[in-house]
Write a structure and sequence with these properties.
- The complex is a heterodimer of chains A (189) and B (254).
- Chain A has 189 residues and is mainly alpha-helical.
- Chain B is an alpha+beta fold and 254 residues long.
- In chain B, strands 1-2-3-6 form a 4-stranded antiparallel beta sheet, covered by helices on one side. In chain B, strands 5-4-7-8 form a 4-stranded antiparallel beta sheet, with no helix packed on it.
- The chains are: A mainly alpha (189), B alpha+beta (254).
- Chains A and B meet through helix 1, helix 2, helix 3, helix 4 and helix 7 of A and helix 2, helix 4, helix 5, strand 4 and strand 5 of B.
């Protein structure tokens, strides 16, 4: 990982504390650091650019409104921000699915060997390259379990259904997948 | 319930840590797991370890946000008030709990409620009213918590700090008194002091001497302190505490 990237989470932590105190200038600096990760993740889950922009806007505003809820004892600012973004994006994609809007498209997507599509779509970039390489090292079932849940917003019950495996197996594969991913990325750093 | 059923039930809840780290639980299971998580240190450790993996997936998806988004967000920020209170609990729980509050509250607690209600009367615009209500509700929950405890510290110059702590909710209500207004260009900042060697955490800025809700109190929270800081607050305390209050050693320990 580039040294600059390593510095960012710490900087984001400092800025978030100032933002919690109502500092708008600090928010502008924080925006520069986190808007890319927020927008990118939301877009990965939702795919639709217009909807992604809308949800990213909600998330970034929530960051301003609820900055005081950030607890540095529980993790970095960036991980907190990504959790907020992921929750919002997943809520949106799930309610859209429930409304049936995406049902047809999703069904069509699942016909082909499209589970790994996400991995293919990942663009260049140091972090991305490593994540892709590390995802490639997982077993197919581990990779599919993790990416269907995280990048496609399916619940683990839905993932089990789509992969036709028992719930317990999906949880085990997700767990092994996440731990191996982390291990692989740490050895890359 | 037999011991065996009980154990297998606990194991089942534990195993939800995995989908939780991927945000892949259904709402009902999510609530169930989060209730469990609040009491389970082992689960918290596992979630943290697994979430490090999903965080990397999230970071890998980064791409530049459209310029128009920046304009819209910064415009909204200028006109949006920040939340100071804890997450708003559901109105139904608080409706059930309120009579309990009045029945069990100490005199100090009643004084807190009075101060909040007075605050509500004084701030009549709708937004403020909503925010005050949320705050009052959050305070009510802390006071009604079965493990709630009150402690107070006062110095010879009449400066005081008191807290009602509710470890189960990871929350506390802190009130300061006798500090007077902050000097021009300065603010009062509240800190949560942790075990030795760990940095103090900012709990927020105190704009008045009204009760202040502190959320996310972790195990190992040892004391509250208030310092005088430059406008906007500081990431770490830069002056000596004006008042401080040590918590009982077991208040936020296991």
């Amino acid at each position: 990982m580039a040294p600059a990237e390593r510095g960012e989470p710490v900087e984001a932590d400092r800025l978030l504390v100032l933002v919690a105190g109502g500092d708008q200038k600090a928010f502008e600096e924080l925006y520069a650091l986190v808007s890319g990760p927020v927008y990118g993740l939301v877009r990965r889950v939702l795919r639709d650019p217009a909807q992604s922009e809308e949800v990213a806007q909600e998330v970034l505003l929530e960051l301003w409104r609820c900055a005081a809820r950030f607890d540095p004892g529980r993790g970095t600012a960036l991980s907190w921000v990504l959790t907020l973004a992921h929750r919002r994006a997943v809520d949106r994609v799930r309610s859209a699915r429930a409304a049936g809007e995406r049902e047809e498209k999703a069904a069509r997507r699942s016909e082909g060997p499209a589970f790994d599509q996400v991995v293919e779509e990942v663009e260049s970039g140091l972090e991305r390259d490593w994540v892709r390489r590390c995802l490639d090292r997982l077993t197919t079932l581990q990779r599919q379990s993790v990416t269907l849940a995280y990048y496609d917003g399916y619940t683990y019950r839905e993932v089990a259904q789509r992969l036709s495996v028992p719930l317990g197996t999906v949880k085990t594969r997700m767990r092994d997948g996440l731990l191996r991913l982390r291990e692989c990325l740490e050895s890359a750093a | 319930m037999s011991l065996r059923t009980a154990l297998s039930r606990i194991r089942r809840v534990h195993s939800l840590a995995v989908p939780y780290a991927l945000n892949a639980l259904e709402p009902r299971e999510l609530r169930r797991f989060e209730r469990h998580l609040a009491r389970c240190a082992a689960c918290a450790a596992e979630v943290r370890e697994l979430a490090a993996g999903s965080e990397r997936l999230g970071r890998a998806a980064a791409r530049p946000a459209p310029d128009a988004l920046r304009e819209r967000v910064l415009r909204d920020v200028r006109t949006t008030e920040q939340e100071r209170a804890a997450p708003v609990p559901s109105p139904r729980t608080s409706a059930v709990r309120r009579p309990l509050v009045l029945a069990t509250a100490t005199t100090a607690a009643l004084a807190l409620i009075g101060a909040v209600l007075l605050g509500v009367q004084l701030n009549r615009t709708q937004d403020r009213l909503d925010a005050e209500r949320a705050r009052a509700r959050s305070i009510g929950e802390v006071l009604a918590a079965p493990d709630a405890r009150t402690s107070t510290e006062r110095d010879g110059r009449g400066r005081g700090i008191s807290a009602v702590t509710a470890p189960g909710l990871h929350r506390a209500v802190v009130t300061v008194s006798g500090l007077g207004a902050a000097p021009e260009g300065r603010v009062r900042q509240l800190w949560v002091m942790a075990d030795q060697g760990k940095a103090p955490r900012s709990a927020g800025l105190l704009h008045s001497e009204q009760p202040f809700v502190v959320t996310g109190l972790a195990f190992g929270s040892r004391a509250f302190a208030v310092t005088d800081e430059p406008e906007g607050g500081s990431p770490r305390p830069t002056t000596a505490p004006l008042v401080q209050l040590a918590l009982a050693p077991d208040a936020f320990g296991e």
